[in-house]
Amino acid sequence: MENYSKARTVERPSVCPFTDLCPDTPEVRVKDGSKIRNLLRFALSRMEGNPSRAEEEEEAQPTPEEGSQKPPGRPLCKQIVFTAIGKGVSKAITCAEIVKRRLKGLHQVTKLTYSSVLEVWEPLEPSAGLDSLTVSRNLPGIWILLSREPLDSNQPGYQAPGRYDALWALSASRDEGGGSTGQRTGHRRKRGGGGGRGRGKGIGR
Fold first, then answer.
1. Strand partners, 144
2. What range(s) does the DNA/RNA-binding protein Alba-like domain occupy (predicted)?
3. DSSP secondary structure of 82-127
């Protein structure tokens, strides 16, 4: 491919595997260059209500005149979807885990898919008689649904609330107890035995 240069890339995203979502469910598309801080700010603003912050904003705003109506606030969502392909999959998983730790009691369903990406390569020298190339690649993708309402526990990829908290607690207890081998933390094996060389066979006799 040293005689070609990439002209353009056309992504064909996969269809959302969750068909029974609410109409107002936000869909967060995570990319490789996305900042986790901005993604979490948007997700938590749609899922988490902060009464103290809302009161501060209301106090900072001027008092509306008589007869004027106050604009209604955006309602909180009961579900949210994180999706990513390629290198952004790890960031989508990180965002979902942080949201689960921030908001307790969320049900999760994870689906793995593939998305096709078309790459068009043009020859560096058109006069060389080379044709354009179209390369099709399949990139792994992930869809993560977080819901406040209970989901079908029989479907593949379902994770109950608090499941990871229990696993983390079990892992921490194993680490403190020395793991599965039963060796204590900080215990070192003694070096050398009683039959080593250089002990002085006839010393003191």
1. 82, 110
2. 27-116
3. EEEEGGGHHHHHHHHHHHHHHSTT-EEEEEEEEEEEEEEEEES-GG
CA distance 57 to 47: 18
Contacts of 79 (CB under 8 A, 6+ apart): 21, 22, 25, 145, 146, 147, 148, 149
Nearest to 81 by CA among 27, 125, 150, 30: 27
Which positions ≥6 away from 14 have C-beta within 8 Å?
85, 113, 114, 115, 141, 143
CA dihedral 46, 52, 55, 59 (to 10 degrees): -130
Side-chain-side CA neighbours of residue 40 (13 Å): 15
Backbone φ and ψ of 132, nearest 5°: -70, 150
Residue 67: CB atoms within 10 A of its CB come to: 5
Does the structure show a pLDDT above 70 at 205?
Answer: no
**Whose structure tokens read 């070192």?**
188
pLDDT at 56: 41
Residues 49-107: pLDDT tens digits? Answer: 653 343 343 344 443 343 334 344 567 889 999 999 999 999 999 999 999 999 989 99
- 57-62-63-66 Cα dihedral, nearest 10 degrees: -130
Q: What is the reported pLDDT for 19?
A: 87
Domains parsed from the chain with CATH numbers: 4-12+24-50+75-164 (3.30.110.20)
